[in-house]
Amino acid sequence: MVRARFATRLVISTTLVLSLGLPRPTTAETRIRFSDFFIGETYQVGIGTTPDFKISPKLLSLHGQGIEIFGFMDGILARDGMFFMILKEPLIGCPFHSIDFDWANFAPVFLKKPTSYFDGPIKVTGRLDVGRRRDETGFVSYVRIYDAAVGRAQ
């Protein structure tokens, strides 16, 4: 009897989440790391020397699905509260104003609602979008997160 009530509550909760269009809860399978982004070389050694990117099978399989990722919020780019870059590690300078940088160390994040800057580790949940494309900011990227929510990492 207890199992039946639990199963019924689980089905109702899942149906409610899906009907409201909220991101599905993440699991170990939908948790991504920066090291999951690409296979092969990702380091740009000079202006106009973009590597030949190969998006990983894991990211391709999660395209359009809810994911979570841990990292740091960039503190350099101008923000309207609806967009930021998630970084693999905190940086002092802007990676885009140097000649060389690693494309596997960041991803643009587009939020569902405005947020303030978070200092320290963060967790982002949202819908993964992969493939080469010029996003809403004019930036060409290969990995993006949309409909995102951000909070302090626990």
Relevant CATH superfamily: Protein of unknown function (DUF3299)
Number of helices: 2
Cα shape:
globular
In CATH, the topology is named OB fold (Dihydrolipoamide Acetyltransferase, E2P)
Would you report the number of β strands?
7
CA-to-CA gap between the ends? 35 Å
In the sheet with the most strands, the strands line up as: 2-3-5-7-6
Largest sheet properties: 5 strands, mixed, barrel
| Mean pLDDT score | 75
Strand content: 25-35%
Structural class: alpha+beta
- CATH class designation: Mainly Beta
Helix content: 10-25%
Please state the CA-atom Rg, rounded to the nearest Å: 17 Å
CATH architecture level-2 label: Beta Barrel
* The number of domains: 1
Succession of helices and strands: HEHEEEEEE
Poorly predicted spans: 2-25
Topology at a glance:
Layout: H1 2-19, E1 43-44, H2 57-62, E2 66-73, E3 83-87, E4 101-102, E5 106-111, E6 121-134, E7 140-152
Parallel strand pairs: 5-7
Antiparallel strand pairs: 1-4, 2-3, 2-6, 3-5, 6-7
What's a concise summary of this model?
The protein is of the alpha+beta class.
Describe this structure in words.
With 154 residues, the chain is an alpha+beta fold. The protein has one domain: Protein of unknown function (DUF3299) (OB fold (Dihydrolipoamide Acetyltransferase, E2P), Beta Barrel). The protein has two helices and seven strands; from the N terminus they run αβαββββββ. The strands form two sheets. Strands 2-3-5-7-6 form a five-stranded mixed barrel. A two-stranded antiparallel ribbon has the order 1-4. The chain is globular and about 35 Å long. The termini are far apart. Mean pLDDT is 75; it is low at 2-25.
